[in-house]
Malic enzyme
Amino acid sequence: MMWRNIAGFSKAAAAAAARTRGSRRCLSTAIPGPCIVHKRGADILHDPWFNKDTGFPLTERDRLGLRGLLPPRVISFEQQYDRFIESFRSLERNTKGQPENVVSLAKWRILNRLHDRNETLYYRVLIDNIKDFAPIIYTPTVGLVCQNYSGLYRRPRGMYFSAKDKGEMMSMIYNWPAQKVDMIVITDGSRILGLGDLGVQGIGIPIGKLDMYVAAAGINPQRVLPIMLDVGTNNEKLLQNPLYLGLRQPRLEGEEYLEIIDEFMEAVYTRWPKAVVQFEDFQAKWAFGTLERYRKKFCMFNDDVQGTAGVALAGLLGTVRAQGRPLSDFVNQKIVVVGAGSAGLGVTKTAVQAVARMAGISEIAATKNFYLIDKDGLVTTERTKLDPGAVPFAKNPAEIREGASIVEVVKTVRPHVLLGLSGVGGIFNEEVLKAMRESDSCKPAIFAMSNPTLNAECTAADAFKHAGENIVFGSGSPFENVELENGKVGHVNQANNMYLFPGIGLGTLLSGARVVTDGMLLAASECLASYMTDEEVQKGILYPSINNIRHITAEVGAAVLRAAVSEDIVEGHGDVGPKDLSHMSKEETVNYITRNMWFPIYSPLVHEK
Ligand SMILES: NC(=O)c1ccc[n+]([C@@H]2O[C@H](COP(=O)([O-])OP(=O)(O)OC[C@H]3O[C@@H](n4cnc5c(N)ncnc54)[C@H](O)[C@@H]3O)[C@@H](O)[C@H]2O)c1
Ligand SMILES: O=C(O)C[C@H](O)C(=O)O
Ligand SMILES: [Mg+2]
């Protein structure tokens, strides 16, 4: 029997979650009467939110006009679950030996088809098998899905706002069928993972991120909304593709761009003033530009800048612990960051701020041990046309020359940490990794954080082979652990913002705060950093297993909420007011968060007589 209850989720909590779901359904009931759902017959079978397939009990078949539309035998949820897992395993067996991309897309298709038929079963198999299924619905396969979106497209998911909709967005937002929306993830498709501008095809990213919100944070799937803001694309191949589904025009720039996104934000917050909006995979200039523009006005954050920074900081602090040194030694770590875009700059800034805080020095002084490299090499003050965000980290060229290569910098600096957010696969080549053997650290750390897998700066196997078996390793996309020649296991950490964004979103939502502050983000990062035991960290395990994602998300959510309480910016959520929140102990806050997580089980669609 493959069926199981996920760790830490009691039957009582599941029942409570189901009750919540039932009552939300009642709210959407148009006709009063004995049925909770207002649809009947085939319309129910074709609605993935209500559909139970062969699982409809006889009373519901009778009262909802389903009699005769289904085979006679009623199959339990557990049996349906086992049947799906069996078909998934059989697909795995039947595709053995086929090219990896073909297999990954086949797996994505079978899961997506389940989603489109029966959301309850889909989210249950996703939650219970998150380690196996996250790499399909999220990084790395989601990248492949975006690249092949025009061919894979079957039915719409989420909403599309295009440059052609200017002036219409306020009315369009009311086309979304759900009354309530809690979480929105928006992209303009301009920097999808390390794959570049994929235009409208980038919609796969908000869909994947929101699936993680449901799985990890228990956000009710009826209350999530993936958004694609299509302002054109500069990807020539897409513009030439007759099957491309987005606007066939170059990207809007400057004021024209801002007018579109301003209009969208106003429309969203007019209809759902309490929603949290996550910005995802915007090219650097708009990632920073929109963050500055909206963060004080709306309840939003940028996952690539802020979520990534928190996860990386937790990893950097874990690295210090892995060396057996006190956390205060973080201020002495020499850190080389390769990639000075939205993610690289976000990480460097946050890590510098942490050093400044810990050492009690200015942020300028704290930049001393940081080295930033972009496509033109080491960033120094000699650089002309330097991105303003990179200015504080530019080195004096007298220390190392302007534009020095990664290997030159590593050989000269002998850093404790080499961290990649460049989007360039294999850039930590054999020479660079071998140079890390001369690191001043007894346990050097290599983070190849770029996604998807082919864009990772190095593979896990190469990192342990060339940089030495004593390293700590993290990557944005999952790799298998590495069997080392010394008989030990080279542990692979998935250094991915998925460990934080669900908790940041959920904690913010349940606090009722109207903005996401630096304090809330720092609390999220510190919570993740302290989650692992010393014993685990010493083995090189810096982040929890993805199997524990609901638990870590509850903890992160509670940390975010408590930070919002301490900043006195909570407005409460539902029946729980700001006073109730401020009186909750840490444990009570975690319980409050957990209680509010949706969990997929079939709930009754008709009232019992
Ligand atoms: N693991 C995670 O949680 C996570 C989070 C966010 C982003 N990422 C990944 O990080 C990568 C970058 O994202 P971004 O938003 O910062 O992109 P970006 O386009 O804003 O920045 C890329 C940076 O890399 C630099 N670069 C390009 N080629 C280089 C080279 N040959 N050598 C050195 N630097 C080079 C560019 O100059 C630029 O500064 C993507 O692959 C993305 O998937 C991972
Ligand atoms: O999507 C991911 O897996 C992480 C991150 O947001 C990215 O852009 O790479
Ligand atoms: Mg991203």
Notes: The first helix runs from residue 11 to 27. The chain has four domains: 1-128, 157-298, 307-496, 500-595. Confidence is low (pLDDT under 50) at residues 1-33. DSSP finds 26 helices and 14 strands in the chain.
